[in-house]
Please model this.
Amino acid sequence: FTDRKGKTPRRPGQRKQCNIEKDPVGVYCRIRPLGTEDEECCIEMISSSTIQLHAPDGLKANRNGEYKETQYSFKKVFGVNTTQIELFEDVGKLLIEDLIQCKNGLLFTYGVTGSGKTYTMTGSPGEGGLLPRSLDMLFNSIGPFQTKRFVFKPDDKNGMEIQSQVDALLERQKRDSQQKADPEIADMISSDDACKVENVDEDSCYSVFVSYIEIYNNYIYDLLEDAPFDPIRPKWLSGGTPVRNNEFIPPQSKILREDQNHNMYVAGCTEIEVKSTEEAFEVFWKGQKKRRIANTQLNRESSRSHSVFTLKLVQAPLDADGDHILQDKNQVNVSQLCLVDLAGSERTNRTRAEGSRLREAGNINQSLMTLRTCMEVLRENQMCGTNKMVPYRDSKVTHLFKNYFDGEGKVRMVVCVNPKADDYEETIQVMRFAEMTQEVEVPRPVDRPICGVAAGRRHRNQAFRDELSPIPPCELVDPADDQMLPRLIEVLQRRHHTRQMIIEEFNKTANTVNSMLQQFDSQLSSKGNFLHDQQSKLSEKDKVIVSQKTEIERLEKKSKTLEYKIDILQKTTDMYEQDKRTLQHELETRDHRLHRELSDRRRIEQHMQGMVTDTRLKWEKECTAPAVHPIHRRSHSAGGEKWVDHKPSSNLDVDTVMQPIIPNAIKVSTPNEKALSKCHKYVLRHQELASDGEIETKLIKGNVFKTRGGGQAVQFTDIETLRQECPTAPSRKRRSGSAERPAHVKNKVIVKTMLILSCHINV
Ligand code: ADP
Ligand code: MG
Model:
């Protein structure tokens, strides 16, 4: 339980979590014999590690015969005939060996009330349980190497101090004067059963301290405390009733503290140094007695309390002479083994507890419930790699042993079962807890470091002392004493011889040590050189690393700038892309429009072409037709209109051949091109059938001129109207009446024609 500083359990935190070796909690099962042989048995041991549970007959009937046989496996199962020594050899021995090797252990018994927990832990006279046997084995092993009393002294902070020889002596004298034997102690173990650890380090000194506490209703009581009654500050019961004078003084509850290594201990707990099994057991008995009295006086249910008996082994190396203990607190090692007899695991309703006891009972079960929860969480954390908080602090029992699971140690549990039918249901619960606990792993305690002083010094020095035996007392009165002198000579010769031998041995050893030292020296210097080499290499590598780092930084910076640039370029590209799209779109629209305009223009052109062709054809026809009947002429003048006879004007070189015309149709004719280029005059002829049946011909005259674009245009200047009788129409009486119509009625049509012609020539 201790590190080199003499403190109890080592903290795991300092070591790397991943390298920790772990062992599962060792769970054993002990079946006690039935009270009477004719009782119904519901547990069967089917192998050295497995038991089978059968539901009792009554329960089967309740469940309509429906039941299951369940099997549970353990590290080992101890049947009803197992003796106490057999159990100890399997369960307890290793823990004592570990204790001497400075490793901590925790051993507890678990089970229903009456299942044999106390029998297993304590036993009875002649049939001592794990506790007396552990003590016996410990003292058998370290007996001759124990320190004198009071060399070690508890420091109230869960550590141990070394007292000066004088102080230790004074305390010893004080104690001896007070010592009185307790006749009550029975002999628990027969001497045949003596166990012993063989490889005890003989160059160390040992001392054993024991403490004994009881946890009842989640209060901790020191069972070894000699509590003087304080009349000013009366003690209080856990229930709250003050105690009057002359009455039994109940122990005051203690608190748990954490030492500087974060290990839990009961603050101010009495630790008694013991030098033999008998003495240790006497102390245990004293505590038992106190416990018994307290239980009776305070009307407690003893099966509801947990008891913890702690064996603390302190060891420190001998100094180089092998005579005294090395006065160095850092070399003191403390390890401990806790032997725990837990309260009955049955549920409250089974114990007919009433009133104030019910609460107590509930609390006890609460402690065991917490123990169960802790195991569950631990198992889950270990199996699933989770890091759930383990509720150690929820009860004193789990809080006290927190470090066995968080720190390191060896944990073993003996599950006690009574195979009787009444216990069946509770036993199943016990089995479930036991099975689960087996899956919890506890960090394995590490080996303690070797102390730097040469081994074997205790015996060597002893031998040396024996060899240098004193010269026997003799009185020489006569120089010729032939009796005394030869004896003296012999003794002196022997001494001389021994001295010579020792000197030789010393020289030999010195030589060996010297050569070893030289070897070490050369090794050291080569190691030093190697180290130097490595260091210079390392510094070179360091330099390289530094330069690489700066290079990396530079490149990183560069890459950052480039990234920035890329970013900007990307943005620009995006912008351009956007522009491009807009322009493309615009282009498309324009293209589209252009296309439309072009097609419009082509249509117009075609239309115009058609019209021109039509007109030309008509003109050609008209110009080539022979002259016909005389025609009337109507001429415009500034004053108004009058009808005149008219012939085609001579300066108009136009063939005005009239042909019978489709009534009401507009006929337009143009002069042929030759004529047009010659005379620069332009005549449009328009014929229609008037309502009175005459054919009305209009000659629209104009001048042709060249346009700036290189084409030709016509400007109309005069309209001549000719009327003639239609050869096909019936004769009419009224000729001129209807001709009175004003010429401008038809002007619209003519103007239109004019415009179109003008256009055509321009193109
Ligand atoms: P617990 O402590 O679990 O309540 P005990 O240890 O007090 O139970 O045992 C109840 C009784 O049974 C005691 O009288 C004890 O002597 C007896 N007993 C228990 N286990 C055994 C066993 N393995 N062999 C013989 N007797 C036993
Ligand atoms: Mg008991």
Observations:
- Residues 1-16, 229-243, 627-667, 731-763 have pLDDT under 50 and may be disordered.
- The longest strand covers residues 712-725.
- The two ends are 120 Å apart (CA to CA).
- The chain has 15 helices and 26 strands.
